[in-house]
Amino acid sequence: MKLDLLALGAHPDDVELSAGGTLAKLVDQGYAVGIVDLTAGELGTRGTPETRAAESAAASAILGIATRENLGLPDGFFENTEPFQRQVIEAIRHYRPEVVLLNAPEDRHPDHGRAAALGRDACWLSGLRRIETQRDGVLQAPWRPKKLLHYIQDRLLKPSLIVDITGYWPRKLAAIQAYGTQVFTSAQEAATDPQTYISRPIYLQQLEARALEMGHAIGTDHGEGFISVEPLKVNDLLSLATVL
To answer: Which residue in 173, 225, 202 sits closest to 24, CA to CA?
Structure first.
């Protein structure tokens, strides 16, 4: 399957929380979009790998993405080393995305920064023809995405660009609330698991406040920010007038 955009996340729900509106908008614009979760989030305080898999499937249906898979890397213990790089390279070569979204380059959860580095290095290595990988017994051709962007997670990092997701906040919120073991929902049962900072009702308000602030920065309602490590290329300076 050839994708226009592939979003990598250290854990199920990373992508929805940070880039769900952007993915939903891209789907509606006719692009092929997919998600690859690195781990099952098995070390999470709440839920289980099985419940989180079901939740990620429900969230994927809400966003309307074309495909999703989980690489099954060890939550909390994966590293940016060759064995794990090869697994990510295999996924990149399978989906051949033009653009890849990565975890925040630094964040509260140490997995996020490691996942960002792992994904970034794997995207580069994926373009080297002397690195051989296979999927389903078929030798894969090299592939290097044209652009990498980091989404913004817990820490408020300065974005390089902000995507206007006005009108997509309700769908993003619905995808997030599909993770009923992780975030607060009106139907949430009396929890036996300990509460976390994202399971509190105020967390969803804080998340929308972030989207409102990003939207305010570009003169719209809701926005999602992304970081580009490299300068963004512009061929026609006046084309910027269409987005100002």
So the answer is: 173
pLDDT, one tens digit per residue, over 47-79 is 999 999 999 999 999 999 999 999 999 999 999
What is the C-alpha radius of gyration for the chain, rounded to an integer number of angstroms?
18
Cβ-Cβ contacts under 8 Å for 59 (sequence gap 6 or more)? 13, 16, 20, 175, 176, 178, 179
Angle at 242 between CA 239 and CA 243, to 5 degrees: 105
- Per-residue pLDDT tens digits for 105-135: 999 999 999 999 999 999 999 999 999 999 9
Among candidate residues 96, 95, 79, the one with its CA nearest the CA of residue 38: 79
> Which residue's entry shows tokens 């990003």?
214
Phi/psi for 12 (5° steps) reads: -55, 135
* pTM, 2 dp: 0.95
User: Does the CA dihedral 229-230-231-234 come out positive or negative?
Assistant: negative
- The one-letter code for the residue type at 221 is D
Non-local CB neighbours of 175 within 8 Å, separated by 6+ positions: 16, 20, 24, 59, 62, 63
CA distance 27 to 10: 22
